Each structure stands twice: as structure tokens, then as C-alpha cells.
């Protein structure tokens, strides 16, 4: 096949040189195939997180010869450092209605066929999870992130139950089971320290990929196709500045997500979508850590204020959508007045527990092994949290107008004492189902009481980006005209289906779902040689 394609291309060029029917303007340049292939497989998967693992399992079960290349020294990606949750609908039609609304009110690009294919496959995910490893149990730990949207009751969030006597976190529980299914059961080879560089294409068809393995460039032939499961671009500052609003981004997820798959797909002619969509809580920066930690106040006596010392939002906005509460650019003073912003709280909130209460996801917790102090005292000592005996002195320490902060705290206290947050509608008590077990307190709003008083800077802390190459319902990567790029597939966070309104546990779900769909489809391709 290699010789045939080269001979055919040479013939076309010769015809053009002789004045034949193929003009220079219409002949599209094509990359030469490697002189030799260093290794080959039916299905080549780049990235070994939940998406890559799901694709490998399904393609292998369909009879394909599979190999996985992982950029870093160990697998897992964002899957392993997540909370390990997976959104699984309990009703097809109601789930489609609910999820469609999350696109509509945010004006995010939606593919109805893709959405329906996701829901259909996601309803099989519980059985798939239980098939990964023996003697595992799953349970419902949460529900829809946006319970004010009709049909939200159609959404449940599931995860593996950690066996008694173990302390394995949710994300590691999930990926450990993926790893068992991939490596122990199916014996799929995984090559580490192997970064995808560029897809090898000819005649608009993906035939393989250049991979750098331990510093050496190698050509890998993909007889049936390539699945890109390389994650997002949250650790690429240039891509963030080009595609998103905001500044001073910090990250919660895996540092390996530097946009490799986006660039490879672009070079192969892929369409991009959802590039400005983020899962981005607010978080805190601890000196010495590579990544940040997200804030999650379980105590009710706190507020968020901007650099002018004023509240600007209902602080109970969903964690994953907090970026949209702070990425406001002031065109008069030329600043982002809410980046950073500040959490303000009292002594009762400090002793209530860690201000990251209940947080279980993120690289800092799961790989850097940071343990936040139970009473926040260590973080005060490190300067992450500042304290003062009065609100006025606290304002001076964080460089906001003291008169504004005093008035803001007084207004908050008077409104909550009167029974309602009239400014932004933050509820006093929790109502309805929990979105995340252990992450929501029954009492949500109380006045800020006795001092000392505390403040901490909050920054956008990206859990993952959503953008990348657009895929169809079969997991095929599409060009800008909606045509599949031959033998190229994607799954997971790379080119995610989710738009601006992302809710927890849906990236793990999408990785699992479209990993299976892409693995199944690519395994059915006819080998090109």
C-alpha cells in the first residue's frame, strides 16, 4: 500500500508537469510516508486516561490489535485526579431535554445527534463500570448540577465505592479499575514517556502518527485508525489567552494537558469547537505547589468581594462555572476587577473546618498530596489566608477600600438577619438533592459574626478545558465542512461535547462513553494495509 500510494502520487505530479489535467493549484500537498515504520497496530491510542482506556478496552474486545502511548510517566490524566464520579442518566428522554437546555441558555454550539448518542451510550455505563474489575460496587453520590433546569431529576452521579480498609480516592479507584481491565485482563501494551507529535496523513487519510518516545522520534503505523485521547489545553498559556477571557489562570488538573491533541488535529484539518468553554472553579494558591486547590466553604458565614470590596455574585454558583462570575473586563479602568477576588469570613467559619471542605479532586490533593489543615491555621501561617481583628484592618491588608468592605459586610448581615439575600439571592438553607456528596452543607448563609476576620485571594483555577476537534456521534473527527477525517477519532476532554455550562462528573462520563464509541467504530475500519 505504501509503494502504491507513493507511485500514484508520483504519477499525478508527472502528469501535472507534462501539462496534464492535474493543476498545481488544485493538487493538495501530501506528507510522504516514513521510509519505515518503527512499530504498528490496528488501533493507535494517544493518551491513557479514562477516554484512552475505554477506547482500548472496546477496540480490543472487538478484535483489534491495540497500543496506547502515554505522554507522561504514568497513566490516569485528569481521570485519576478527579473525584471519580460519572454522570449516568436514569431516563433517556428527560435527560436529553435537561442536557439540551444547558446548551441553549448559554448559547453553546450543540449537536443534537451527538447528545442523543451520548445519552444512549451513557445509560449503559453502570454495567460497563462493573465489568472492569471483579468484586466492585458502585453507588449514587450526587445528582444534577443545575437543579433549576427542568428534568434535572433524570441525572444521577455514580462512582466506585472504596473497599473497607482502603483510602484510595475516587479518581484513583476509577482509573485503577480501568488499568486492570486494560493491562491485566486484555494485555494491551502501554508505552510511557511517549508524546504524540504529528499525525501522518496521505490523501486526506490518517495512516499513523509520529511519537517521541524517551526523546527519540518514531513512526507508528495505525492500520485501522488513531484515537486522540490527549486531554485539553489548560496548561498551555498561549492557547488560553487566545481562546478564553480572564487572566492569572491557575490549574487544578493534570499538568500533562498542554494541547498536543488540539494541534495534531488542527494540522490534519479538523474543525474546532467549544474552545472558550471551561470547567473552572475558584481556588487558592499555596506556595510550592504546581497546582491550586478549589475553595469549598462549608461554613455559612462568608462572602466573596471584588477588588473594590463589594459583593458581585451569589457565592453558591456551581463550582464548575465560577469562571463566568469573575471574567468581567472593566473597559474604563482596564482591569479584571474580580481576578483575583477575595473570600471574607469570620472566626466561626475558620474553626468550622478547611475552606476547601469536602474537595476530593485535583492534582494538588491526589498527586502532590497536600493536606489542608483542619482549622486553616497552617494556611494562615503560610500567608494563603490573612487575618485581622477588624474588618477595616482586614481591608487594608488585602488592599481594598475599607469603607466599601465595612458597608458590604454590614449590608450582608442586615439582609441575612432579615431573612433574605436581596442582592444576589443566595439561599439560607439547602433545598433539593445534593449535586456532590460531602460538598454541600445544610446551612448556606449566616451573618458574618465575631472576629478575628479572614480573607484569601481567589483565582480562576481550571479543572479542564472543553475545546478541541469536533467529533460526530461515531467518535470521528470532523473537518470544517462536517466531513469525517478518514481514520481519525477522538474521545474525552479533547473536543468535549460540553459547552459553557459544564457540571461535575460529565467529563468522566463523556470520556467513558465516547472512548467506547470511538473504540468500537475504529475497530470496524478496514485496514489500509
Question: Would you give an account of this structure?
Answer:
This protein has 529 residues and is an alpha+beta fold. Helix content is 30%, strand content 21%.
What is the C-alpha radius of gyration, as a whole number of Å?
25 Å
CA distance, first residue to last residue: 6 Å
Which stretches are poorly predicted, pLDDT < 50 over at least 5 residues? 1-30
What is the average per-residue confidence, as pLDDT, rounded to a whole number?
92
Number of strands: 22
Shape: elongated
Count of DSSP H/I helices = 16
Largest sheet: 8 strands, mixed
Helix content: 25-40%
Structural class: alpha+beta
What percentage of amino acids are in beta strands? 15-25%
SSE map:
Blueprint: H1 2-17, E1 39-46, H2 50-61, E2 66-69, H3 77-80, E3 86-89, H4 92-104, H5 112-122, H6 125-132, E4 138-143, E5 155-160, H7 170-185, E6 190-191, E7 194-202, E8 205-213, E9 216-228, H8 237-243, E10 250-251, H9 260-267, E11 272-273, E12 278-279, E13 282-284, E14 293-294, E15 302-305, H10 323-326, E16 341-345, H11 347-352, H12 363-366, H13 377-382, E17 385-388, H14 391-398, H15 402-417, E18 453-462, E19 464-465, E20 468-469, E21 476-478, E22 484-490, H16 506-523
Helix pairs in contact: 2-7, 2-16, 4-5, 14-15
Give me some keywords for this one.
alpha+beta, seven-stranded mixed sheet, elongated
Amino acid at each position: 500500500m505504501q509503494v502504491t500510494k507513493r507511485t500514484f502520487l508520483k504519477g499525478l505530479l508527472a502528469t501535472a508537469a507534462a501539462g496534464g489535467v492535474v493543476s498545481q493549484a488544485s493538487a493538495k500537498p501530501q506528507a510522504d510516508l516514513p521510509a519505515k515504520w518503527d512499530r504498528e497496530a490496528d488501533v493507535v491510542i494517544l493518551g491513557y486516561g479514562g477516554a484512552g482506556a475505554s477506547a482500548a478496552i472496546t477496540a480490543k474486545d472487538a478484535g483489534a490489535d491495540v497500543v496506547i502511548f502515554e505522554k507522561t510517566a504514568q497513566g490516569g490524566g485528569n481521570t485519576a485526579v478527579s473525584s471519580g464520579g460519572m454522570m449516568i442518566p436514569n431516563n433517556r428522554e428527560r435527560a436529553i431535554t435537561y442536557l439540551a437546555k444547558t446548551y441553549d441558555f448559554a448559547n453553546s454550539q450543540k449537536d443534537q445527534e451527538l447528545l442523543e448518542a451520548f445519552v444512549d451510550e451513557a445509560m449503559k455505563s453502570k454495567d460497563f463500570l462493573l465489568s472492569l474489575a471483579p468484586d466492585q460496587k458502585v453507588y449514587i453520590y450526587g445528582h444534577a448540577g443545575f437543579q433549576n433546569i427542568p428534568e434535572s431529576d433524570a441525572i444521577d452521579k455514580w462512582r466506585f465505592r472504596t473497599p473497607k480498609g482502603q483510602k484510595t480516592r475516587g479518581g484513583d479507584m476509577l482509573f485503577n479499575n480501568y488499568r486492570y481491565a486494560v493491562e491485566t485482563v486484555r494485555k494491551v501494551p502501554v508505552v510511557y514517556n511517549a508524546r504524540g507529535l504529528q499525525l501522518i496523513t496521505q490523501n486526506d487519510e490518517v495512516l499513523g502518527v509520529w511519537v517521541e518516545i524517551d526523546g527519540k522520534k518514531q513512526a507508528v503505523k495505525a492500520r485501522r485508525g488513531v484515537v486522540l485521547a490527549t486531554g485539553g489545553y489548560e496548561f498551555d498559556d498561549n492557547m488560553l489567552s487566545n481562546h478564553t477571557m480572564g487572566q492569572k489562570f491557575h490549574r487544578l488538573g493534570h499538568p500533562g494537558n498542554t494541547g498536543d491533541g488540539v494541534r495534531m488535529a488542527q494540522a490534519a484539518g479538523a474543525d474546532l469547537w467549544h474552545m472558550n468553554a471551561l470547567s473552572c472553579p475558584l481556588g487558592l494558591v499555596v506556595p510550592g505547589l504546581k497546582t491550586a486547590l478549589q475553595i469549598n466553604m462549608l461554613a455559612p458565614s462568608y462572602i466573596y468581594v471584588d477588588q473594590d470590596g463589594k459583593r458581585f455574585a451569589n457565592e453558591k454558583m456551581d463550582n464548575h462555572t465560577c469562571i463566568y462570575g469573575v471574567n468581567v473586563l472593566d473597559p474604563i479602568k482596564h482591569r479584571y476587577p474580580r481576578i483575583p477576588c477575595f473570600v471574607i469570613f469570620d472566626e466561626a467559619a475558620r474553626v468550622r473546618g478547611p475552606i476547601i471542605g469536602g474537595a476530593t479532586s485535583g492534582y494538588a490533593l491526589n498527586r502532590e498530596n497536600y493536606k489542608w489543615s483542619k482549622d486553616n491555621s497552617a494556611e494562615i501561617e503560610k500567608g494563603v489566608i490573612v487575618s485581622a481583628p477588624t474588618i477595616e484592618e482586614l481591608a487594608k491588608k488585602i488592599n481594598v477600600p475599607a469603607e466599601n468592605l465595612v458597608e458590604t459586610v454590614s449590608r450582608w448581615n442586615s439582609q441575612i438577619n432579615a431573612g433574605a439575600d436581596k442582592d444576589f439571592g443566595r439561599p439560607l438553607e439547602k433545598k433539593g438533592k445534593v449535586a456532590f456528596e460531602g460538598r454541600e452543607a445544610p446551612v448556606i448563609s449566616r451573618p458574618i459574626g465575631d472576629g478575628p476576620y479572614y480573607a484569601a485571594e481567589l483565582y480562576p483555577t481550571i479543572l479542564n478545558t472543553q475545546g478541541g476537534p469536533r467529533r460526530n456521534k461515531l467518535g470521528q473527527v470532523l473537518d470544517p465542512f462536517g466531513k469525517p477525517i478518514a481514520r481519525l477519532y477522538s474521545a474525552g476532554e479533547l473536543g468535549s461535547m460540553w459547552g459553557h455550562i459544564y457540571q461535575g462528573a460529565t467529563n468522566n462520563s463523556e470520556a467513558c462513553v465516547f472512548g467506547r464509541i470511538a473504540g468500537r467504530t475504529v475497530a470496524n475500519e478496514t485496514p489500509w494495509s
